[in-house]
Specification:
This protein folds into 4 domains: about 150 residues, Rossmann fold, CATH 3.40.50.12160; about 110 residues, 2-Layer Sandwich (Transcription Regulator spoIIAA); about 120 residues, 2-Layer Sandwich (Transcription Regulator spoIIAA); about 55 residues, OB fold (Dihydrolipoamide Acetyltransferase, E2P), CATH 2.40.50. The chain is an alpha/beta fold. Helices cover about 35% and strands about 20% of the residues.
Amino acid sequence: MQNLNSLQIELMSSLSGYIIRIREILPSIYPHKPLACVNTYGCQQNVSDSERIKGLLCEMGYDITEDDTKADFVLFNTCAVRGHAEERVFGNIGRMKQLKKEKNNMLVAVCGCMAQQQIICDKVKKSYPYVDILFGTKNIHKLPEYIYKRLTGSPRIFDISDELSDIIEGLPIRRDGKLKGWLPIMYGCDNFCTYCIVPYVRGRERSRKSEDIIAEAKQMIKDGFKEIMLLGQNVNSYGKGLEEDINFSKLLRKINALEGDFRIRFMTSHPKDCTKELIDTVAECEKVEKHLHLPFQSGSDNILHRMNRRYDSKAYLELINYAKERIEGVTFTSDIIVGFPGETYDDFKETLKVVSEVEFLSLFTFIYSARHGTPAASMPDPVSREEKGKWFSELLKFQEEISKRNYNALVGQSFRVLCDSISAEGKLSGKTLSAIEIEFEGDASLLGSFVEVRIDKFTNKLEGTIISKE
């Protein structure tokens, strides 16, 4: 176990005690090995949190199932970033009403970013009486306590307290894959972009000690992982508040120096904290992916100011151009919000200018969705949803032409590719070090290995042929 402080030792001792008690009582409650299903919505951080939740459930004596109709414990790990995600969550929670009637001692739980909001907590408490447990983003380590209390007759449990500022190390993990893995390096966000709910539901930035991150990375490498994704709401600000002399660039170099043939990815980066030091590090570290996911959200300085992004389009493009100079084969992806309150078509055209200059590999695009509790939700928003939809379609078509041009330029070139998936039709696919995805013929035995692939053509995807194996 990592070097824990006295509070963490106390919490882990309490957690272990509840795990032992649950393992003792489960056989008297269920005539079979109980099954647990964890439904995850939203970002990679939620996926990583769910892996720790599954680890706890396995320690308690549950087996994991993907079928919530067969489960004795169903948990919804929720996302609050988009309104559509909330609608999906409530729709699926609604399905649990009939299931609970049919199954004795079934428990339903809700956690994550949605659950952290008081308005959602109140709604679940009032309108979904079959939900047994609701807890916030900082209380994953208390799940065994909640389950034990509920199984032994406690009233419904609702806990969205956020007093805990420490990161709890040492939680068990049941990873979803064996090839690509998530590695959180920090939690929370200090940026308070006016459209974003994350700082309110995830809390302020807290960085993990580098020794804990390195220990987890070493274990992942030992377990055979070939791709390690470093996670944080803003990885570029990693290290703030820690006593050690560390920042994100130094952490990348530490992980890059570990023995083994693997790749390092990271997300998400905030442009205001992206430095030339970081770009130099990406250029110089052979295991770090030559790709930057650098959300710029809007090309209009007026809209960036209203978003509280704290950079302008000139500063953003200076970073991009420096990365193009320093990182061989670098590619870029980004997030864009269309139709932010107060945005005009002239503002939108500024976004198209940035897209044209950068030539992104791909974009994650969204029409603005108001989130309750954020400053942007109360801003005047005169442009109709229909008009925003037209801008959105124009952006998609604009980026599609850029992607086609850039992908066609790759035909005939060869790249080292990590084979990471196989389709239902039996075709392999994988990514280059620059995050370019290629599909190719090959045997399933190649999964997890590196091969040299020549790109033969581009249709709606890049297709290639293996020319050598390692």
